[in-house]
Every structure is written in C-alpha cells, then in structure tokens.
C-alpha cells in the first residue's frame, strides 16, 4: 500500500499533466483571432468564440481539480471546468457534468458504485493535502458507532477549510463543498417552480446560483446566460452575489435589484407600514388599470374636437368621439389604443375632405392629446397619487376613504423631481405594462432570493418577466419581515404558479452559522416561526457568543462599546457586521467618523473588507466573520417584526458573535409582560412560572452552567425564558391579547367621547388592515 507521500506525488503528476493541457488550450485560443483569415466579420466571430471558451477555462493559477471519485476501475477527477488533452482524453470533468454526480451524491447508505471519494486541498495547482472517504469503511464505522449521517458525512475537511477562510464583500462559490441534499436541488428539473426554504447558514443562496450554472451547462445551447435573471432584494445584496457565476465561467447572467425592477428605480422615499402594505395588495392592479383608462375622455367645457385650424379644419362632436372611444379602450395596451384612435381621426379627416391636404401631423397629435394624453409610467402614477379626485374615481367601492387618504400625496412640480418608494417600483412596473405591454425581454429561468418578504404586486412584477414560469425561489420564513411577512409559501406559489409543477423543498443542514450561535438564536424560533423545523447545525464555532452587559444604555456609552468591539474584531483581520437599531445609528456613525475608522454603509449598497454598518433588515442574506449586535431590546421594540429582525441579526456570522445588551441579551415575549398581565394570568389559572421562571437555556447545556452573567461582565449565558410549548404559548397569547385590549380600552375612555368609540374602532380596523375580516 503506497504511503501518503507517494499518493501525493502520483496525484500531483496528474494535476501537472492536466495543467499543461489546459494552458496549451489557452495558448491556442489566445492566438485564434490572429490566426483566422478572411473578412473582418469572420475574424471577429472567431475571436468572440475563442474569448468565450477562454472564460470557461478559469484562471491559469486555479487548481485543475478539487476532487476525485473511484468507480470500479475508473478514476474520475472533478473540477470547475472540463480539461482534455490533445488526444481528446478527458483529464478532468466539470462538476456540472452528469458524470460528476457520484462525487456529490454518493453516501455510505447508497455509494452509487463509488469506492473512494477524495477531496484535495490545493495552493494554486499544488496539492497540499487530501481527504479520503472509503465508503465501505464509513458504513462499518457508522454501524459500530451508531452515528447519524449528518455526523459522519455532513461536514468534511474541505468545508471546514472554506468556513475557516475569511469572508469578504463578495460571496464565494461552494463547488468544492456542495452537499448531497444541495446537489439534488441544484440538478433538479428546470421546468418547475422550485421553492427552497432554508434557515441561516444552509447555503440556500449558493445553491440557487450553482443551480443556474448547472442549468446553463446542461441545457446549452438552448439556455444562454442572457436567458437567466437573478433578482435580489437590494443593490447591496446583488453586488454581494454577482461574482459567483462569473467565477464558475458563467458571464452575462442578468442581475436586477428588486428596487429597480421597472421603468424607474426607487429613490428612497420613506413610507409607513400601512401604506406599504396597501400598495402591495393585488387590488392596486385594478386601481391602476381603471385610473389609466379614465384618462381617456372627451375634453371638458367643449362640445367639439377640432383637428387643425382655419380653412380645412375638421370638427368632431362629443357624441361622435364618445361613441368611437369604446372601439379603442381596453383592447390591448394604452399606447396601442392611442395609436388606433389616432389612425381613426386621420381616416375621418381624409374621408371628409378627400381632396384636401389632410391633417398636419402636429395638428392631429394635438387633437389626440386632448382626448387620449400621451403618458409615461412615472407621469401617470405621479398624476394619480397627486389627485384625490382621480384616486376616488378609480377606487370605486374597492378602497375606503382612509385608504385613499393614504395613497394621496402632494405631487412634485416636475415629473423628474418626484421621489419614489421601494413599493412604488412594482406599481410603476404595473403601469408600464398597462401602457406598453409586457417587457420585451423575458427570461427562461428566474432566481429570486430573499423572497419571503415579497408583496403580491412585486410577485406580479417578477412573473411578467418569466417566459414559462420556470423559477428558483429562495428564502426563510423565520426571517420574513415587513408588511408582507408570511408564515407559509402558499400565497407566493399561488401567485407565481403556471402549468409547471410546484416543489417546496427545505434545506435541513446548516453549515455556515456556528452551532453555539445558532442554538442561542434558535430560542426565538418558537415565537417567530412555531411551525418551522430548524436546520440541524453540524459545525462548531471558534467561540461562544460574547454577551456584554453595559447597564442602562445611553447613546454615547453603547456607541463607544460597540465600536470598540467591532474594531477588536476588525483588528484581527475579520470581516465585521455592526448591526444596530435606528435608535443608536446616528451616534454610531458619528463615532466611526470621529475615530477615522474605515467603514461601509450597507444600506447605501456598500460592503467593505473591514467594518460594515447595517440595520437588521439590510443585513439579510449577508455573511460576516464577526457580528456585533447592538441593543437587542431596541431591535425588538422598533417594529412588530422585531423578534425576526433580531434573529436575522444574530445569524449573520460564520464565526464570532458579540451582543451588547442592558441586561436582556435575548428579549423573548415573556420578558415584556406587565404586572397587570401577571395578575390576569393568575386570574386565568396560569402559574407565574409559566411566564417567567422557565429554566435558562445555555447555548451548550452539557458544557455550561445556567448561572447568570455578573453585571458588567462578559459571558455566554443570560437570563431568558425557555421556548414555551404550544400550550403555554397559546395561553400566553391569550394573556397578552387580553391585557393589550384592556390597556387600549383605558386609553380610549380617556381620549375619546363614548359616542365616537365605534367610529374609532372602525378606523382602527382599517389601520390594521382588518376591514374584510
């Protein structure tokens, strides 16, 4: 049996041969343009084809392979790109090729004929080490130890090495570390609506992007990179992920930011939750349609429409025009209808005066404009939101007076000066379709990441860009926040579904978030996503969560302590996420600037190699070596989705977590119950211990005690209630609801006369979106 050193030499010889073959191909392709003869167009075509093939080779410093599988007498090397020698012998197969499937899918339970799976650790094209899995031996060890598949096969040295590497402002590919369950999703049928539900650290975004690469490879030449659209929630996120596919050899895939998916991107207009919820509802589509066609009407305060002037002018009565308009309204797009009406007027003018010169183009256009104004999406929506009369006329019985009041806003003096919110973008896109039809470019496959927050109107915007309904949808219901926070994928799949099958598939193994961190954060799950199965985390982190109690917060103290923690991590070469609520943001920005610290504002689309300041909502989907979470209680209190925002913030790290708190590092709902609610709980027969005295949950029960952290000290355990079972959670909900109702009733009695109570309650239902319930 050869020694490890001898095996390394044999493997390196193969790597060297494959490298020479690849670089020989590179040299040939580099000279292809100059070697080609004939017309310039032929030379250009040859050069373009050669350049495309060059991109598929990867870099000259890249290792030729990262793995090997032995199947019977056959040895197969797996790498990013296929490599063949001059005799057309395959030296390395692409990870996307069907032949590579056993490398990813073989297990001790079903080895698929694989006797050996070897993964290489390389520095450029030099093999530093390798890790072997001999499936017969693995099956025997599993049987002897009674270990789970996840424990024996869920994580390997290649994955550990990748996770130990520092994060940067760009996502990396995971070709070398794709797990069996991930690979099955990557290579699943293109013709479906695939929803991937994945908790923090399950690799769902990477799976979706590698699925694109796999589809492009296996469906070429029918599927081209330009046929694929990747939609992210923000410009920051899109920048973060867009280097993955080019690194796999797949350039020219189209990326779009959800805030720019339309004729006009968001300009950052701020709007409240109720208006954002309203603008996301499907009934807005009908409102826009009605409002647009209502712009077509005979001019007021006149009974004649005149085409031209002076001798030869032709007049059309109100009755004539109003009788004709139904032949053009609602049949096709607004723009096509306008062109049809214009053609009608031109024919009529010529028919009435066959020997005349006909209507001048300018005169004809002026007449058409009076009846059927030329509109852009931005001009139409600005006019609509800036007019109560137009909103009321279009709303009919579909909207309340309060809702019309929410939609109304003062229009800017110029269309170009109008500011647009994130939710306006989908409405502008809807208007664009009504005006000019569906987008001219539609895609054969669409990937949507962080899809758990999308509104029905945003889903319509995405669906109209799909050629067939083939999509990969990625998200986590436990991280769903905002006006359209959801508990299941049902409404989303219903909105996007076509004749294609719908598959909702969870990723059940978590790799990237350390076990200690996830166990700490997962105590929120019974409250934020009680029906969701959390992923099984298979990796230990380098340290327990660092919980720093700083006493009662003041802006200066918390900012100084947070900055010190972030700088300590950055000083160790870590990519840091500094996640804070709005309450402390201004002071933190001032502190960063005052200390001349290099930092990036994630909300502005930036990611830096050092410290990155973000709100919890802005950090979704991002990964950092270290995360500093500031004031969990303030995060929870800032919005009705505060617990989910906190869950997002805590799970952005791949290594280190620091939490700065004022005594409650993990504020669960029970910690906010008032004395009045305790009394109410006792009246209802609930023990106070059910609310407050549940045992503390340390992140590792076997390794830690449940002793609290001393004031001002750093520790890993803090006082927080254990996740309640379904019974206590239900009882607690009753307690909270009843107590809240009593508090609101007391306020109502003090503030409003009794004869107005019913009206106030009716308005409150509308504010909460309960009108139809």
UniProtKB/TrEMBL annotation:
Transmembrane segments: none annotated. InterPro entries: DNA_helicase_UvrD/REP, P-loop_NTPase, UvrD-like_ATP-bd, UvrD-like_helicase_C. Coiled coil: none annotated. One of its GO terms (molecular function) is 3'-5' DNA helicase activity. The keyword NAD does not apply. ATP binds at residues 198-205. Keywords: ATP-binding, Helicase, Hydrolase, Nucleotide-binding. Pfam families: UvrD-helicase (PF00580), UvrD_C_2 (PF13538). It comes from the Bacteria. The keyword Metal-binding does not apply. One of its GO terms (cellular component) is cytosol. GO terms for biological process: recombinational repair. This is UvrD-like helicase ATP-binding domain-containing protein. The lineage of its organism: Bacteria, Bacillati, Actinomycetota, Actinomycetes, Micrococcales.
């Amino acid at each position: 049996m050869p020694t490890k050193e001898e095996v390394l030499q044999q493997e390196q010889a193969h790597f060297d041969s494959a490298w020479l073959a690849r670089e020989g191909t590179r040299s040939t392709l580099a000279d292809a343009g100059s070697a080609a003869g004939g017309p310039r167009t032929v030379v250009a075509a040859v050069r373009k084809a050669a350049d495309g093939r060059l991109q598929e080779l990867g870099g000259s410093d890249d290792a030729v392979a990262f793995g090997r599988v032995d199947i019977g007498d056959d040895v197969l090397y797996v790498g990013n790109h296929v490599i063949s020698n001059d005799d057309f012998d395959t030296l390395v197969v692409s990870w996307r090729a069907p032949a590579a499937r056993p490398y990813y899918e073989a297990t001790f339970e079903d080895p698929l004929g694989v006797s050996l799976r070897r993964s290489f650790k390389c520095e450029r094209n030099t093999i530093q080490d390798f890790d072997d899995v001999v499936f017969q031996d693995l099956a025997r060890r599993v049987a002897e130890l009674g270990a789970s598949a996840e424990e024996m096969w869920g994580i390997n040295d290649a994955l550990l090495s990748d996770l130990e590497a520092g994060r940067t402002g760009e996502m990396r590919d995971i070709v070398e570390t794709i797990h069996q369950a991930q690979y099955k999703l990557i290579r699943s049928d293109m013709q479906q609506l695939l929803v991937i539900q994945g908790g923090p650290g399950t690799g769902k975004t990477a799976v979706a992007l590698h699925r694109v690469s796999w589809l492009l490879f296996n469906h070429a030449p029918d599927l081209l990179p330009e046929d694929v659209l990747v939609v992210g929630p923000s410009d920051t996120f899109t920048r973060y992920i867009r280097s993955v596919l080019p690194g796999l050899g797949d350039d020219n895939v189209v990326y779009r930011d959800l805030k720019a998916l339309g004729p006009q991107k968001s300009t950052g207009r701020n709007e409240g939750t109720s208006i954002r919820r309203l603008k996301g509802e499907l009934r807005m589509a009908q409102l826009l349609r009605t409002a647009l066609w209502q712009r077509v009407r005979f001019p007021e305060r006149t009974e004649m429409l005149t085409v031209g002037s002076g001798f030869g002018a032709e007049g059309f009565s109100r009755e004539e025009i109003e009788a004709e308009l139904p032949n053009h309204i609602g049949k096709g797009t607004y723009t096509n209808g306008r062109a049809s009406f214009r053609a009608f007027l031109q024919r009529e003018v010529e028919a009435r005066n066959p020997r005349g010169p006909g209507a001048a183009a300018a005169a004809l256009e002026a007449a058409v404009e009076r009846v059927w104004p030329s509109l852009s999406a931005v001009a139409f929506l600005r006019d609509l939101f800036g007019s109560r009369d137009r909103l009321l006329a279009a709303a009919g019985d579909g909207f309340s007076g309060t809702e019309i009041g929410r939609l109304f806003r003062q229009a800017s003096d110029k269309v170009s000066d109008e500011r647009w919110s994130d939710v306006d973008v989908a409405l502008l896109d809807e208007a664009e379709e009504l005006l000019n039809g569906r987008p001219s470019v539609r895609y054969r496959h669409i990937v949507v990441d962080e899809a758990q927050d999308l509104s029905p109107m945003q889903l319509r915007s995405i669906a109209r860009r799909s050629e067939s309904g083939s999509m990969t949808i990625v998200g986590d219901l436990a991280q769903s926040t905002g006006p359209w926070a959801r508990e299941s994928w049902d409404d989303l799949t219903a909105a996007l579904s076509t004749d294609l099958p719908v598959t909702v598939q969870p990723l059940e193994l978590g790799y990237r978030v350390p076990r200690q961190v996830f166990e700490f954060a997962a105590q929120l799950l019974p409250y934020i996503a009680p029906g969701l199965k959390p992923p099984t985390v298979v990796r230990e982190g380098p340290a327990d969560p660092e919980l720093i109690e700083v006493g009662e917060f003041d802006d200066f103290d918390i900012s100084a302590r947070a900055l010190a923690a972030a700088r300590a991590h950055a000083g160790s070469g870590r990519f840091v996420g500094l996640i804070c609520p709005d309450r402390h943001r201004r002071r933190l920005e001032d502190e960063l600037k005052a200390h001349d610290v290099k930092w990036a504002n994630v909300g502005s689309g930036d990611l830096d190699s050092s410290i990155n300041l973000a709100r919890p909502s802005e950090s979704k989907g991002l990964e950092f070596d270290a995360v500093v979470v500031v004031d969990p209680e303030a995060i929870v209190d800032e919005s009705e989705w505060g617990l989910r925002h906190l869950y997002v913030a805590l799970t952005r790290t791949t290594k280190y977590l620091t939490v700065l708190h004022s005594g409650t590092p993990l504020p669960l709902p029970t910690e906010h119950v008032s004395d009045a609610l305790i009394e109410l709980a006792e009246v209802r027969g609930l023990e106070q211990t059910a609310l407050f005295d549940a045992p503390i949950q340390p992140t590792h029960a076997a390794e830690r005690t449940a002793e609290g952290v001393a004031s001002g000290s750093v520790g890993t355990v803090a006082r927080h209630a254990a996740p309640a079972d379904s019974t206590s959670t239900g009882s607690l909900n009753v307690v909270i609801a009843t107590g809240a109702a009593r508090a609101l009733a007391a306020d109502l009695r003090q503030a409003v006369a009794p004869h107005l109570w019913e009206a106030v309650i009716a308005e409150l239902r509308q504010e909460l979106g309960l009108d139809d319930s």
